Amino acid sequence: MIKNAIIGGTGVYDPYLLDDMQERVMNTPYGDAKVITGKYQGTEVAFLARHGEKHSVPPHLINYRANIMALKMLGVKNIIATAAVGSLHFEYKPGSFVLADQFIDFTRCRPSTFYEGGEAGVVHCDMTVPYCSELRQALVKAGAANGIEICNGGVYVCNEGPRFETAAEIAVFKQMGGHLVGMTSVPEVCLARELGICYANISIITNFAAGISPGVLTHSEVLDMMKNSLGGIRKILTGSLKYIDEKAPCDCGNILNEPGVMK
Ligand code: HPA
Predict the structure, then answer these.
(1) Of 40, 158, 173, 219, which one is least surrounded by beta carbons within 10 A?
(2) Structural domain contains residue 260
């Protein structure tokens, strides 16, 4: 059983420093997902590149269900997912790390549940606290151990993409209480919750969002900033593994105990 997984978003495409690496194609009822498994200092880890090889899959076409089901099939209990994001506030500067604690969902055309009726049933999953507070603590500790500042908390607005936002959209998101804008955390976090998996997001701010940034936005500026941040991200990801508490008292897994829920 591999308990811990990393989902690498934009700019995080390789499993870095894992021993005994193995590439596995997991056949799930939702399609195939490629996962690399290995060990970091004795701890087994699964790595999944969300956008596929060479960033070949756009946010709205990612097979989120296959990805999350593949990790579940490996026995994963904890997922730490990276995400490149734009910032809605001058205080949240490019280059900084934020652990999202809430999201606002503006996605439009993504399969977002495993429970589509029939034999699977229908589930209305609690999302009061979508991102696992225990996993976030592990990330905070890893940041502190490595001298890296991490802001623990922020509202992630998930936009459909793949285009960037208009300045007017960003102004609305800001008024609604958003701090960060990205294109991938939803439905990934919801699907993990449906399968009782703890899930944390580490957002890497790559740019000020549209209308806050003085210029136009480009994917290459996002990639450049991710390249600069990669050393820090790797330290946080690998460093967090030893702080993940197997007996963490969070509620993420309890959805599996609701009556009528497929296990
Ligand atoms: N908007 C949406 N997604 C993003 C951004 C942004 O400004 N930057 C990185 N991912």
Answers:
(1) 219
(2) no
Specify if 179 maps to a domain: yes
- Rounded to two decimals, the pTM is 0.96
Whether the CB of 206 sits within 6 Å of ligand 1 = yes
At 11, which CATH number? 3.40.50.1580
29 cis-preceded (ω within 30 degrees of 0)? no
* 56: pLDDT strictly greater than 70: yes
Residue 26 CA to residue 71 CA, distance in Å, equals 9
Pocket test for ligand 1, best of 158, 159, 164 (most atoms within 8 A of CB): 164
Residue 262 domain flag: no
Residue 240 has which token pair?
């967090």
* CA 163–ligand 1 middle distance (angstroms): 9
Q: How many helices (H) and strands (E) does the chain have?
A: 5, 11
Ligand 1 centroid to Cα of residue 213, in Å, is 11
Give per-residue pLDDT as tens, 175-197: 999 999 999 999 999 999 999 99
Which atom of ligand 1 is least distant from the CA of 209?
A: 7
Give the residue numbers spanning the domain of 119.
Answer: 4-246
